[in-house]
UniProtKB/TrEMBL annotation:
Domain (NAD-dependent epimerase/dehydratase) ranges: 5-227
Protein's recorded name: NAD-dependent epimerase/dehydratase family protein
Family note: Belongs to the NAD(P)-dependent epimerase/dehydratase family.
Highest rank taxon of the organism: Bacteria
PANTHER family in the record: DTDP-D-GLUCOSE 4,6-DEHYDRATASE-RELATED (PTHR43000)
């Protein structure tokens, strides 16, 4: 066995893939979730809330992890405008509570998974939204915490993650709309802001394998970018899905301009540690579509 890993946010989009992957790689896996304990899984789950320090300290004492993969937190840009304080509480204070509980296990290696949407800290900060502020403060706090308490803390910044599972990203939303269209449940046009907006997309399963490489081989205190290195437009996504279906659902495509000039994500430092993405963009989209086709007509399955 490679060691005991605690994965926060274990019932989320990335968390479920992470539990499955680390279990397959010979780790003892405990997933931290906020809902009821899930039975019948090949790994353990434990219920806990990162906003309750005493509860998290008790869990850490019981689990005694060798590794922690911190995926829990809020991640909706739109929702962050409505509940900015909740985003600070979840993404910043929740991370502090976790790191504080881990102080009694100084040999534990902890990977904090951040966001490419953070902004550079200057004397005149200009975050684009409260979510970006919360993730920037999360990273800043993790680095400062490492300096103060000499814990083994690493940081990862994935690009836009796609893949099978319940996701609120554009690929998942479009695939779900296509599946509903095929089942005759939905016929209204799916709206896209534009066809030219570009992003770096990476399969969540490749991201999870990157997390493992960082935890096993990464340098304490370093921030590792995780991406495909290729920009894909919304038009490319539509074209790829169109090749996978007998008849494409109706679309409304706007002409909005992209707010910022995107850059492909360079994962060169991570590749030097031996990581390579292995799942193609088209395979990711096919798996997303297959997942949504497998759902029944009840929403929120």
């Amino acid at each position: 066995m490679k060691g005991h890993i605690l994965i926060t946010g274990a019932n989320g989009f990335s968390g479920r893939h992470a539990c499955k992957y680390f279990n397959s790689q010979g780790y003892k896996v405990t997933g931290l979730i906020r809902g009821p304990v899930e039975e019948g899984l090949p790994w353990f789950t434990v219920t806990g809330d990162l906003n309750h320090p005493e509860q998290i300290q008790s869990i850490i004492q019981r689990v005694r992890p060798d590794y922690v993969l911190h995926l829990a937190g809020k991640n909706s840009v739109a929702e962050s405008w409505v509940q900015p304080a909740h985003y600070f509480e979840s993404n910043v204070l929740g991370t502090i509570n976790l790191l504080d509980a881990l102080r009694v296990f100084p040999s534990c290696r902890t990977l904090i998974v951040g966001s490419m949407l953070r902004f550079e800290v200057t004397e005149d900060p200009a975050p684009a939204h409260p979510y970006a502020l919360s993730k920037t403060l999360q990273q800043f706090t993790a680095k400062a915490w490492r300096h103060l308490f000499h814990q083994k803390i690493l940081l990862g910044e994935p690009s836009n993650l796609i893949g099978p599972g319940f996701s609120t990203g554009i690929c998942g939303l479009l695939a779900r709309a296509i599946a509903k269209f095929e089942r005759g449940e939905e016929n209204k046009p799916f709206r896209l802001s534009s066809s030219t907006e570009e992003r770096d997309y990476l399969d969540v399963r490749d991201a999870v394998s990157a997390y493992a490489v960082i935890l096993e081989k990464g340098k304490d205190g370093e921030t590792y970018s995780i991406g495909s290195g290729v920009l894909r437009s919304l038009g490319e996504i539509v074209a790829a899905f169109s090749q996978m279906v007998p008849r494409m659902l109706p679309l409304e495509i706007g002409d909005a301009l992209q707010a910022e000039i995107p850059q492909p994500v360079s994962a060169q430092p991570l590749k030097q540690l031996g990581w390579q993405p292995v799942i193609s963009f088209n395979q990711s989209l096919k798996d997303i579509l297959d997942f949504n086709r497998s759902l029944n007509s009840r929403e929120g399955e």
